[in-house]
Amino acid sequence: MPSASFSSTRSYTRRTRRKGSNRLPIPSRTSNSGGVVEAGVTCEPLVAASGSYATPGGASTSTSSFQHVPPYDLRGRKSPLHLHDASTAGFNATAPVHPTATRPTSPTASATASVLQSAATPPLSQPARKRLRRNTSCTITSSDNTNSAAHYLQCELPDEVMLTIFSYLYEQDLCRIAQVCKRFQAIANDNNLWKRLYQSVFEYDTPLFHTENSRFDFIPFDESEHHNPWKESFRQLKKRCLHVRPHYNGTAKDPVRRMPHFETIQAGLDHADEHLNGGAKIFLHPGTYRGEFLVIDSDITLIGAAPGVVADAVILERETESTVMFVEGAKSAYLGHVTLKFTPNVTSTVPHHKHFCLEVGENCSPTIDHCIIRSSSVVGAAVCVSGAGANPRIHHCDVSDCENVGIYVTDHAQGTFEDNEICRNALAGVWVKNHANPVMRRNHIHHGRDVGIFTFDNGLGFFEANDIHNNRIAGFEVKAGANPSVVQCEIHHGQTGGIYVHENGLGQFIDNRIHSNNFAGVWITSNSNPTIRRNDIYNGHQGGVYIFGEGRGLIEHNNIYGNALAGIQIRTNSDPIVRHNKIHHGQHGGIYVHEKGAGLVEENEVYANTLAGVWITTGSTPVLRRNRIHSGKQVGVYFYDNGHGKLEDNDIFNHLYSGVQIRTGSNPIIKGNKIWGGQNGGVLVYNGGLGVLEQNEIFDNAMAGVWIKTDSNPTLKRNKIYDGRDGGICIFNGGKGNLEENEIFRNAQAGVLISTQSHPTLRRNRIFDGLAAGVEITNNATATLDSNQIFNNRFGGLCLASGVQPIVRCNKIFSNQDAVEKAVANGQCLYKISSYTSFPMHDFYRCQTCNTTDRNAICVNCIKTCHAGHDVEFIRHDRFFCDCGAGTLNNQCQLQGEPTQDTDTLYDSAAPIESHTLMVN
């Protein structure tokens, strides 16, 4: 009032200073644009251009009176009807302004809010004035009670009381009142205040953010980047929202918020179509919505709204047709956080042709998010996506415990399926057929009562990082022209197999882990031709990869190990390509080819398997090239029972048995291989085995480089057989064979030993530098020797036992050391040159006086010296070492002097010898 004295103003200032200790120290701010002016504890008057200041009523008075305007005068502020700053952005700015801005049930709240409104709302006729900055206390004329009340509210009232007052306001008015001053702004943005407000509308326990189109994310309070997550979530969700809340006790129309509420979902959809022209958000509050046939043909958002696990509280259920159907027009529709149930009444006689809980039709691409989907129908599927242009995004859903198929994608449909739980369904977890091409990532597909994923009838699809396990049939089945891509999945603990490809199935299986399945990790059959690449296939209760029934396929760069049966099994006219794999530590063999199996097996590493590295049997004809087959606990490559095929350019080494075995009618071609380090020889051909061994290197084997036994008849051409720790080639027990143009050298025993009714043919071989004899024939054996060169062997070139009469033509036997004849001539005991590791061929005797048998051979020099005057008998000219010199007889050998040289070095591989070509030339 103009008549107010300055003294009264001064006394009010003192009261303000005494009570101001609990107030927020908020400085004043003047908007340069003439907009919002936020005042603090210290207030300045608004001074007109003429030197006068404005009164609350708009009158001017002289500056000599020094009358002050009330604090927090909001002249220059825009009308609350037109506020669009950051505090109110996103809320309904077109809603009518209610001066009380409170819930109508509280008279006290109405009165209190009137005072707040008087402080917050200036006269609309006042122009913006520039505020002069003065160093004065917060003063107010005592004659204006309204302004005093406003000052008290703004400056004096404790925060707790202000918070209680603000709790009666709706969100729109809270945003407006926050513009009064910084203190109001701080209190109006209280998190607990907004949380109560938010939960009264949306009921969520955690703020839900509409981060982008068709995407909603719950972000916990302590993980949010927003200062007030509840307010920010409210801002994002409020626009164009409707509520379906059956039996809602509040106001049905909610005029302040303009959030209509409906009893049924269909009513909400109809309202959105009529009034909101698409893009509306419909919040479905707790309840079970039965019987509504929902056909979505627009970009509507349907989302559950409830505390706790939202989908558990919001249930949509139907007994006929589909529970929810998306059709053309639903390009960006959204359905989230609800439970969908399809529970047909089996006793009902009402016919229906739809058997799906959720159906997505042609030319629509809705988002289905965090839904629980159940179907008790014994036909159809819980989710059906069909038709060209059907391209939904289904993620974080639970499709479980259904009495049929979980997800069915067909008829050129697509779709992205991510992070879903698909389990315990009666039929397949996922069906893909008829050129459908979905993308499925990070799904958990398990404990199905049928197959995990079934692609058939030309189905496609890209399947990445899925966890597929404990399904009753295969984890992944491909049939009838289907061609899926399966990448980085884990397929394990299947009650039958891991992957089953049959009936002309295709597919690419890349970088997967396939393990612990009861049957084979991968089955390929009936003209199927998949690509199995860079997978880990291990710990199967049967085999790793099983190819049968004319199966094919590319098996490449896989790590196959620890399986109970063969790492790779090929049978019944199957013809795969197997290359660059590691097949190791199997409890059975490495590769097993049988029953007319074929295939190209190249550049694999096969090692440390319990049985043979490679088994080839029963009419099979694989081609093995450039493999490393080593360190097995039995044989390297085993041909038996008419096993055939080609073994070319492989490294076969370090097996506890021989490197290669051929028996019982098997007739392979073995060419260009390196076969070494076998503890039972290099190559063993026995029991009627055949085969062509050509241009191989066979060396450093503990026993014979090549054994030919028991009526076997192989052909050996141009092989190099050397540095053996026993003989080069040993032919026993009726063995035959054609040995042509081989080089046999530096072996510890005879280069070629022929014994016991054997009759091989040797042509144009070079047998040299042996540590024993070149060729020895004994024990009623015979041979044909034609045009061979036998030279520089220690014990002699050609050594024939008594009664042996080979066919010998055009051989060159020269420069042999004849150590046996020299030892006899020098009067030495032959044990001196042979020890017990070699069996030189010479005349052996027995001593009847010493009661020796014909098995106790005594060399001629020991007969002359050690058994002089005894009754002795000539036995035969044959291979023995001297028992007298060995000390096995009762008499001490008189010819033995110092111990014989250590012969253990005979078991070591020969040191490499460098070529002298450059030095000579």
From TrEMBL:
Residues 151-197 form the F-box domain. One of its GO terms (biological process) is ubiquitin-dependent protein catabolic process. InterPro entries: Beta_helix, Carb-bd_sugar_hydrolysis-dom, F-box-like_dom_sf, F-box_dom, FBXO11_UBR-box, Para_beta_helix_rpt-2, PbH1, Pectin_lyas_fold. NCBIfam families: para_beta_helix. The keyword tRNA processing does not apply. It comes from the Eukaryota. This is F-box only protein 11. A zinc finger (UBR-type) spans 827-898. Pathway: Protein modification; protein ubiquitination. Pfam families: Beta_helix, F-box-like, zf-UBR. Residues 1-11, 54-65, 99-114 have a biased composition (Low complexity). Residues 12-21 have a biased composition (Basic residues). The keyword Phosphoprotein does not apply. Component of the SCF(FBXO11) complex consisting of CUL1, RBX1, SKP1 and FBXO11. Interacts with CIITA. GO terms for molecular function: zinc ion binding. GO terms for cellular component: chromosome; nucleus. It is found in: Chromosome; Nucleus. It comes from Acyrthosiphon pisum. Keywords: Chromosome, Metal-binding, Nucleus, Repeat, Ubl conjugation pathway, Zinc, Zinc-finger. SMART domains: CASH, FBOX, PbH1, ZnF_UBR1. Residues 827-898 form the UBR-type domain. Residues 1-37, 54-78, 91-133 are annotated as: Disordered.
